[in-house]
Amino acid sequence: MKISIQTLGCKVNQAESASIEGMLRDGDHEIVSARDKPDLCIVNTCTVTAKSDYESRQIIRRALRSGARVIATGCYAQLRPGELSSIEGLDLILGNAGKQDILQHLSSITSKERCRTTNTGAAVRVASPDFLLAPMPYRSTRSRAFLKIQDGCNFSCTYCSVPHARGRSRSLGISEVLRSAERLYQDGYREIVLTGIHIGSYGLDLSPQSSLSGLVDGMILSCPDARIRLSSLEPQEVKDEFLTAMEHGTVCSHLHIPLQSGSDNILKLMNRGYNSTYYKQLINKIVTKIPHISIGADVIVGFPGESDKDFSDTVNFIRQLPLSYIHVFPYSKRPDTAALELHDHIPEAVKKKRVEVLVSIGKSKKQTYMEKFLDREVDLIVEGKSQKEEYMNAISDNYLKILLPAKGLQSRQRLRARVFALSDSKLIAQPLIF
Questions:
Q1: Cα angle at 131 between 300 and 3, to 5 degrees?
Q2: 157 and 88 share one domain
């Protein structure tokens, strides 16, 4: 069967889609793009914002119009299957736990006639999100591998519905992670991105208890020529051991540390567990130790009760920080979250203007950071062909997008290069010959 997988949202969803692809290929199915007239489309949805919900529904409807049968899975399917049930023609709504048994669910829908009544007739298979993690196959055309080591979250940020969709924090056993990493390394991946909903809590639920730093130490030994990248870490979980590994070049010198607000008042309403002083001291400590590091942050604007002063505090705070990029999101009402019950919700027009202000600051910070690397060497993984035919895309250990002359290069290749130009928000580099 020809199957297309379309993925929305975070790196965890991307890792899970790659595992779904691995299971389907092992089951002798052909993976194709949505443009290649698939028999079946699997849409791995996201529900982190109202926009994510909307985009998930649009992709599902587009797949149905193409004539494909459709399975909707992911966090939106997990949390609000009733909303998806209104989409006529949808075959199956599958919760996050069902991703690990995708072949069985596939058999259940392909063995029945397609329903084209006014009522969708979609089957709903949504179980508890607190399922045990298991090693999964991995197949992807990406140049970097996303290895899911953890799922779920024990935090209770007032704006976030992800704990409802993903359950409590659970970790994949350390020996299973190391075996999976070794397989990825043997398959030619030279960068492995450790992903999860809350990877800083990795290993705390295992017996005997482990930790993310212990796992990283094991990976350094078992995959000596691979780059290890950490996905998002909460401010309270950035350990000195990670910074030491970055100094030695075994862990990528890149951290994504969510901020969410520069106002202590809003951070308290969000239940983030730290204040702006803690965050600022952490960032300055990291940059002092590793001056070339790339640090990114998430920021939510328009949270309920965010006054002009709160927003001004956030703007001034971010301007002071040595960040290399920021991801800016307008606050989005999420069902079953504490923030929904707060007073003083911000008008959409105000949120839009505030987003524009921070996006502009983010662009300036990114440009300043990129310019620092002109005429410097960088450690690169080749990703694939650029829109400019004579170039290949590459990504540096500190998360810079780089263009390389394409001649003689292959995807997943690791090399060093010297940056010599900046054009259209991308650096251009020349590979070094040893």
A1: 80
A2: no
CATH number at residue 230: 3.30.750.210
Task: State the total domains in the chain.
Answer: 4
The owner of tokens 């492995």 is: 192
pLDDT of residue 122: 87
- Regarding whether 115 and 31 lie in a shared domain, the answer is yes
Residues contacting 304, CB < 8 A, separation 6+: 269, 331, 339, 342, 343, 344, 345, 346
207: containing domain: 142-252
Q: What is the pLDDT of residue 225?
A: 87
Has this prediction a pTM greater than 0.85?
Answer: yes
Cα distance between residue 420 and residue 377, in whole Å: 10
Does the pLDDT at position 116 exceed 50? Answer: no
Give the end of a domain, one of 125, 156, 179: 125
Partners of residue 300 on adjacent β-strands:
329
Question: For residue 293, what are the CA distances in angstroms to 145, 363, 371?
Answer: 21, 17, 14
**CB neighbour list of residue 227: distance below 8 Å, 6 or more residues apart:** 190, 191, 192, 250, 251, 252, 379, 381, 397, 414
Q: How far apart (Å, rounded) are the C-alpha atoms in residues 318 and 367?
A: 15
- Domain presence at residue 405: yes
* Residue pair 124/78 in contact by the 8 Å Cβ criterion: no
Q: Based on the fold, state whether residues 363 and 345 are members of the same structural domain.
A: yes
**Residue 348 and residue 192: Cα distance in Å, rounded?**
39
Q: What is residue 224's predicted lDDT score, i.e. its pLDDT?
A: 86
131: in domain:
no
